Amino acid sequence: MAAPRLFGRGSWAEASRIADILRRETVGGVLLMCAALTALIWANSKWSDVYHQLADIRVGPAALHLDLTLSTWAADGLLAIFFFVAGLEVKREFLAGDLRDPRRAALPVAAAVGGMIVPALCFVAITLNAPDGALRGWAIPTATDIAFALAVLGLINTHLPTAMRTFLLTLAVVDDLLAIIIIAVFYTATLHPGPLLLAALPLAVFGVLAQRQVRAWWMLLPLAFTTWTLVHASGVHATVAAVLLAFTVPVARPGNGDEPCLAEHFEHRWRPVSAGVAVPVFAFFAAGVTLTGGIGVALGDAVTLGIVVGLVLGKTVGITGATWLVQRFTRARLAEGLSWWDVLGLSMLGGVGFTVSLLIGELAFGVGTDREQHMKLGVLIGSVLAAGLATAVLRARNRHYRSICAEEGVDSDADGVPDVYQRQD
Question: Which residues form a coiled coil (predicted)?
Answer without folding.
Answer: none
